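Journal club prep, notes for RB
We'll compare a predicted complex against what the paper describes. Inputs for the adenosine-5'-triphosphate case:
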Amino acid sequence: MDTIYLNHPIDKGKLKIVPTVMALGFFDGVHKGHQAVISAAIDKAKELGTTASVMTFNPHPKEVLRKQENQMKYLTPLPEKIKKIKQLGVDTLYIVHFTKEFADLTPQEFVDDYLIDMNVVHAVAGFDFTYGSLGKGTMETLPFHARNRLRSTIVEKLEADNEKVSSSRIRQLLSNGEVEAVTELLGETYLIRGTVVDGEKRGRTIGFPTANIQPKDRFIIPKTGVYAVTLTVRDEEFSGVCNVGFKPTFHNEANEPTIEVHLFSFDRDIYGEDVSLSWHYRIRDEQKFLNVDDLIKQINLDKEKAMSLLPL
Ligand SMILES: Cc1cc2nc3c(=O)[nH]c(=O)nc-3n(C[C@H](O)[C@H](O)[C@H](O)COP(=O)(O)O)c2cc1C
Ligand SMILES: Nc1ncnc2c1ncn2[C@@H]1O[C@H](COP(=O)(O)OP(=O)(O)OP(=O)(O)O)[C@@H](O)[C@H]1O
């Protein structure tokens, strides 16, 4: 897959202008609804004998148009989104740098400059896709702005339990710790990438050595609590139990929750390694224990539970 970064106004000299079927959207998470849109574009491209492309935007419009107090977090920060879109079999991914100036384009300008000039012969998007300033262009107005210069497919709403599969719904589920439901909507377990860093080394003394994971990029971290997880190190996958939180049993002044993973059968030193962490099941809330023995008893139960849920 070719990945092409575009800045507004686009420099058309840089583009290979071949006829293409293009899927349009932000696509955070590349969930099942997004997959339906991108697959529809790939199918259409096969039918028409053109390339299949995706146009996405970065950063998220909300980050640019509304002042976010904290930097916004993502289900798939850009490198992850690129990986997932590539796996779907797209020929070209266009990443438009989302700025206020780009957001100010009228719907007609967006269609002229970003679709027609890029030789998009067919545009594919979901029923609720909007384009142009204040989201005034919709899939219903697209034929009007296109004036017979391109055709379009509207992908109908994909639902799960009578509700749209959406990035915002998945974000909400992660903030509630509902990682099993997230798997359903993504079509695979949610994962974050990170690096193994030094912890306070207390884990070893209580019989549960843990790898502390420092997330890379701006991944959304599920709600604090204990989870059954798998950790992938150098293409090898290990099962374990993970605590995300503030370790209230001990004195802790961290602002961000720490992510600690205890792997069941593992005695390698992986400090500094890049890892990915997949969130399979939620086990319980994080608690403040009266003493370390009670914490140890509980962690043993967590471990048993996670072992019964996961392949070892
Ligand atoms: C499966 C698991 C569950 C945990 N649950 C809690 C908890 O409920 N409350 C708490 O204060 N700490 C909890 N911890 C964190 C331990 O306190 C922590 O692993 C230990 O203090 C080591 O910390 P260190 O890596 O900073 O040395 C849990 C750790 C694991 C691995
Ligand atoms: N459940 C769905 N069914 C069909 N199309 C969808 C679905 N979800 C998103 N799309 C389409 O996928 C593209 C990308 O959508 P977008 O990035 O806005 O995702 P979203 O899940 O709707 O996000 P958010 O929850 O932030 O609104 C758009 O064309 C959109 O219409």
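Talking point for the session: The chain has two domains: 2-157, 177-309.
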